[in-house]
Amino acid sequence: MVEFTLPKNSKVGQGRTWPRTSHATHLTEFSIYRWNPDDGENPRTDTYFVDRDDCGPMVLDALIWIKNNVDPTLTFRRSCREGVCGSCAMNIDGTNTLACTKGQSTKPRRR
Known about the structure:
The protein is mainly beta. Helices cover 10% and strands 26% of the residues. Strands 1-3-2 form a 3-stranded mixed β-sheet, covered by helices on one side. Strand 4 and strand 5 form a beta hairpin. The longest helix has 11 residues, at 59-69. The relative contact order is 0.17.
């Protein structure tokens, strides 16, 4: 495993916590790493609450739901949605995997 130290101005900060949907009863919390190299700001972690009754079972479905219903500035790559192309590869829960084949976690997150 490779370890490296980020510069002091690259420390990940707490980002925005988006409000929960008032009518949702089956919510999952997503903490998403956000960084824009063009704005000069430090990276941040934004928190979203996804209504699992309103989206599909995979992490990619939740990301699409967030983009369509909560935050249109969220960007990510996707293509085939079948685990063939590898376009949606990302680090999810500390593991490199495909968002289109990774199911949403039903266990509570440790903090």
